[in-house]
Amino acid sequence: MSHNPLDTLIHMANQIAANNSHYGSEAEAAERVRVHLKKFWARSMKQQIIDYLHEDGSQLSPIAQAAIAKLEVRPGATDAA
Asked: Where are the domains of the chain?
């Protein structure tokens, strides 16, 4: 994997997913990942990873894909859900 910013975000999302994969079901793990991304990632980071999921997403783990699918960055919103 090269070291461009998107590759770094993909790697980070997959690591967060792996670190949360032991929490119950895949859905519960994905929710924990979603909450983490919402709290700790900048809006621009979230938008990049959401765009990647919609364009390809193949390098994301299933848990990361499920978590990112639940993120939505709305222009002008104070908090990205």
From this structure: 5-69
